[in-house]
Every structure is written in structure tokens, then in C-alpha cells.
Amino acid sequence: MTLKPRGKVSRFVPKRRRAPAQPIHLKPGADPAVRQALKSIGVPEPVPFSPDPFQSEAVAAIQEADCLVTAPTGSGKTWIAVQAISRVRAAGGRSWYATPLKALSNAKFNEFSEIFGQDQVGILTGDRKERPEASVIVGTTEILRNQLYDAMHQGETLDTDLVVLDEAHFLGDPDRGVVWEETMIYLPSRIPLLLLSATIGNAARIAEWLCAIRSQECRVIEATQRPVPLYPVFFHPSGTLLPLLSGSAPGKNRMSPKVREYIRNEKSQRWAAAPGQLPPLGEILRVLHHFDLLPAIFFLKSRADCDHALELCRESPVGGDPVQKEALYRRISEIISQSPHLKHHRQLWHLKHLALGAHHSGQLPAWKQVIETLMTEGLLQAVFATSTVAAGVNFPARTVVFLNTDRFNGVEFMPLSPTEFHQMTGRAGRRGMDKIGFAAAIPGKYLDIPLCARLVASPPSDVLSQLRINFSMVLNLLLSHPPDQIENLLMRSFATFSLMRQSDGPSGSQKLSGARHRVLIQEFNRHLEFLKQTRFVAEDGALTRDGLWASQLRVDQPLLIAEGFRKRAFPESSPALMAAVMSLFVSDREYDDPLDRHMVPQELLEAVAVVRSVLKPLMRDMYDQDFNVRPLCLKPAIAVYAWASGRTWQDVTALSEGAEGDLVMLMLRTADHLRHVVSLTKTFPEAAQTAAEAIGLLLKEPVMLEIA
Fold it and tell me: Does 310 map to a domain?
């Protein structure tokens, strides 16, 4: 019998050898209008500090009412918080400063420790718990929200006299905005609320909502002027800088004639690179250096682009002052001496010899901290970063460079919103170090030039309610409220308020708010009924014994974990296996890579098999009733088990076949889930003790490393 090949049969055709790429050399040039702006570059004369009017107004306002401060990035909002905290401390009170990021919490902890004294400042981020009884607490908003849950359950009031919510525009974040909204709803009105935010389009409406639910005035203090003026430029592929906007109508965000001509002339829209590839970033960097536009932050589309960008600059190093180079070498040596993992980092050469770095979520947190430290200290020429660096991290530069006008939201790439764009350009121009900042648009496949021009002068985006129901929320509210009171509590949502305030017919956003309110009530009742079916809630709406301890599992999938403990499916005597099994509920990726099960430890296979078997009925019921259920993937558990069992970081990285930053995040999130298991000490003492030991096995270098 003759075997026939499947599919098409293609002849072997030898590939043509491509001629070696010719080196690209850009000739620096600048339009007269740009040259005029370049003359403004310089360091402003030092002057004694004097607060801006909006800062003084905010300090006065928070003494009498709640206060929402909305101002451009880098305008000095933290100074307002420091003054408010100082006043509270002088009266013997305590303050809570909440941020959206652990990295930002760590930075504020260090900053406030220098201001108020190390013994006066504590930090609560999950990963860190230091001096929780201090007069100033810095932490993530999730921790603050959880403290409010506990206070409501115990019938107590939160032990603080001021709450500061930094980055308050996170209220509109699709993933985490629910935490901000819950915090604002649950916070007792006796505690003054200071909200600090980038510019918000509907700040007045948010203040009205807060006034309505807290029964006290909320004053809006707005500042619209950037502390350092911004000049947008267009980087022509020839190497010439053009004004992006027309000088005759800068407020109308009209593109300059030469940029319009570039868009019309398709032949001119070419870099010496294949479509989809990066332009000659080394030469672009050299042009920026020629015009004294460094340091710069290049916002790129992906992690891979950030890493590849460093290689594109290898042959085009820009000049540098010998004294600065020596300072860079010395500082790098000081920092990386704290971690053997950083001494052999693949991008260390670029950092030392080119003064360039890449910054993205795929890297070790310690390496990102190295980049942030060197950039903040003015020792780097440029950083290639994804847009995540724009939020919350003090990362200033003279110029920000755009190669794309979209951003990955976790599901798909979407066009930048005005708020996102302003956050990114907010890094351009260092207060006290620059007289002017620049935003440079680099044309390419993913840059919408007209959109970029519109965003420069676009008003900030409105913030919409993102409150949504989940099992953890319902369990925790039932700790202290009967179901009918919870429905009234949901009536206090920002979505409901927006609907009730409509006047001349609902707008698109108001219709959305009304629909969201109806969905909230329906979703609450749907979750409540399922909790009754699974015996976490009694028919009268009160938590059962299982519901009481399950409410302490403030994680994404509390019911599955609670069911695992209820059915004794977890390995309660092995810390490494406990960590591995808990990682099943952490990963939100679906792994379909084939696994050689002969390479997986038998004890891990057996432990995971037990968990899957026990939880299968509940997962099927949740799926049938349209609740979100993620598969329990084995692959992340293999990496967690290996790390908790003492394998080297290099071995674990190879096992995971992923980026180091993703692996660190897996370990940190697993440790966070284990902390919630530790809270079950009274009900499951052996499991709680095992979980505590498992945390120690996960949180070791390089997963946990603080760079001084």
C-alpha cells in the first residue's frame, strides 16, 4: 500500500539570500517652529517652595469637608496629603493612605517614613505588614476595603481619622474599580475623605454622589495647567522634527500642514523596516540626543518590542558625560550587589554601556525597581516601556515617545483614552528640572496620527461606575447586613446616582448606568440564591457556619476554595503541595500546552486529581448557572510546587516556560491566597499552619527583594 502525504505537497525552492541590511543614518533636522520650542529647554532657576493656589485650597477644604483633587500628573498632589496627614497627627489622630499598586505603596511608605519618622509609618499590602498600629498607614485599597468589611461585621468603626485615596480615577477601572467604589460607599462619614486623581471629566458628578451617600459636602479642587508645558512633535522618517499641531490654532488640535501632507503622501510613510517591525530606534535616539531631548520614555506595544528595542540601539550608542557614566557604573554596582539574580541579567550590558533599560511586567520586580531608581536619579538616557509604567510610578523624563495609540486592556487592544494619554504625557517634563516637556509621535503601523493630535487637547474622560457583584462581596455584606439592607446599599452605587440625576433624558452613559443598576440587583439576588443552594447561606439570608468562615476568603474564587476545605480535598499536611493546589485558583490563563505527565511528580498529580474530582460537581453547577468558572490548570501548579520544594529559580523558570515577571506574579498571588487560608485558623488549624509555612517557601529571593 502506498502512503500518501496529507495536505499539499510543495516543491523545495531555495530561498533567495537577502542582501545585508544597509545601515540607516538619519540626519537630524527641525522645523523652524520646533527650533523655537527647543530654545526653551533648560533647567529652571531654583526658587523657594511656595504652594500653588489649588494646593492651598485643597489643604483648607479637607479641614472642613471631603475633598476631590483632580490635577495633571506631577503637579504636587502628594504635598496636599502630607499637609492633611500632618494636621491629623498633630491632633493625635491616625491616617490611612491607599494606593492601587504595591510598588506605589512601597514608594509612599519610604517617602512618608522620611517625612514623619520611620516609627510613625506602617505598611499593609498583603506582601508586607509592618507597624499596623502606626499613626500613618500606607497600603493597597483592597486592604482598606477588607478592613471596612471587618469593621462592619464587628459593629465597629474604622480606627482612622483621615482616608486618602490616591489615583482615585481607578474608580472607573474595569477590573479593580469595584474596590474603590465599595470603599467610598462603606467608609463612615465621620472620617474625612481626600481623593487625589489625574484629571477627571466628571469630577463634579462624583463629588455630588459622595455628598449624597455620605451626607456631607465634597469640594472639588481642579487644576488644569501642567506644571511643565508640553510641546508635541512629529518625528518624520527623514529625521526631521515637525510640529504635530498647527501653531495658528493649538487649542483646536488641528494637525500642522506638513503632517497632513505626510499622511496624504503614502510613499513618504516608510521607515527602512518591514511592516510591523520597529523603526531604527538607535538612530531615533541619536536624533533626540542631538536636540537635547533626553532622557526619554518610549511607549511600545509589547514586552517583546521593549526587549528588542535595546538590541536596535546596540550599534548606535549616544554620547554621555564621562562623570555621569562613572556615576551610572557605580550606582549599578551598588544596587545589583544585593541580588545574585540581577548580576547576570541579560540586559545588564545595555544598562551599563548604553544607559538604556526596558521596563515591563514580564521582568523581575527587582529589575524593574533598578530601572526606576536609575531613571529617577537621572542616570539613564532612555527607557523602553509598555504603557503600564504611566500609572502610579514616579518615572519622569524630558520626552515621551509614542509608537502606537492603542493599549492592551487585558483582552484586546483598544485606542488610548484621553485620560490614559494624559497620564503618559504627564511623564514629560520634570518639575524643577525642565522648563518644557516634549511628546514625540513616531509614525508606524500602530500609530493613528489624527487620533494622537486629537488626544493632545482632548478633555479628560468621564469615570463610570464599575461596581459588580461577586461571591466574596455578597458573603462579606451578609456578615453585617440582611439581604434587604444590601439592596439599599447597592442603591448607593455611583451608577444608580448617575441615573437618578438625569434631567433632560438619559444620555448614553446614563442609560448604561441605569442598566448597570438593574443588573446589580439581579446579580445580587442570583448570587444569593446560589449561596443558599450550596448551603453557605440559610433560607432567611443569614450566613451558615460554613458561610461565616468562607467570607474570610476574599479572593476571586472563594466558593471553590471553601468547597475544597469543606470536603477536605486539600493536602493539609504538606506546605509545598498546599501552595501548588492553591495556585490552581490563581492563574487566569488557560494553558493548553501538552504536558509530559511522566515529568510531573506523582504526589502533585494525585493531589490535583483529588481537588478536580471533589470540585467537579460544584464547578458544573456554577457553569450551568452562568457563573464564571476557570479551568484548574496543572501547569502553573508544577512551577509553584517546584519553587516551594526548593528547586532553583532557573529550574523553575525553565519549567514555567514563561516570563520571570509572570512567574513572580504567580508566586505572589498564590501567597496572597494562602494568607486568606491562614485567616481560617479557628476552623482549620492544621491547614492554616500549613498555609503559613507555604508562604515562607514562596516569598524568597528573587520573588521578594527590596532594592535600596
Answer: yes
Grid coordinates in use for 411? 483582552
Report yes or no: 521 and 468 within 8 Å, Cβ to Cβ. no
Whether residues 567 and 689 share a domain: the answer is yes
Write out residues in the chain with pLDDT < 50, as ranges: 1-20, 249-251, 503-504
Domain CATH code at residue 663: 1.10.3380.30
Same domain (yes/no): 318, 420: yes
Tell which residue, 543, 522, 546, has the closest CA to residue 477: 543
* Single-letter amino acid code for the residue at 699: L
* Residue pair 381/289 in contact by the 8 Å Cβ criterion: yes
Same domain, 499 and 563: no
- By residue range, what is the domain housing residue 499? 471-533
Residue 219 bridge partners (DSSP): 67
Domain containing residue 399: CATH number: 3.40.50.300
3-state DSSP assignment of residue 69: strand
Paired sense of beta strands 413-415 and 356-359, if any: unpaired
Query: Looking at residue 170, what DSSP letter applies?
Result: G
Distance between CA atoms of 515 and 513, rounded to whole angstroms?
5
Helical residues (DSSP H) of 123-171, grouped into ranges: 141-154
HSE-CB of 583 using CA atoms within 13 angstroms: 31
Task: Tell me which residue has cell 544598562.
Answer: 351
Q: C-alpha cell of 117?
A: 519618622
Does residue 372 share a domain with residue 492? no
* CA–CA dist 588, 571 (Å, integer): 22
**CB–CB of 123/139 below 8 Å?**
yes
Predicted pLDDT of residue 47: 87
pLDDT reported for residue 14: 40
Listed in sequence order, the residues at least 6 apart from 515 whose beta carbon sits closer than 8 Å to its beta carbon are none
Q: Look up residue 258 and give its amino acid.
A: K
* Residues constituting the chain: 708
Question: How many Cβ atoms from other residues are within 10 Å of residue 518's Cβ?
Answer: 12
Determine the Cα–Cα distance for residues 561 and 675; give it in Å rounded to an integer.
Answer: 13
Give the pLDDT score at 9.
Answer: 37
- Segment holding 327, helix H or strand E: helix 322-336
Output Rg (C-alpha) for the chain, integer angstroms: 27
* Model pTM score: 0.88
Whether 197 and 70 have beta carbons less than 8 Å apart is answered as yes
330 in the same domain as 286: yes
The structural domain count of the chain equals: 4
pLDDT at 194: 98
Rounded Cα–Cα distance for residues 494 and 513 (Å): 8
Please tell me whether residues 264 and 136 are part of one structural domain: no
d(CA 543, CA 551): 9
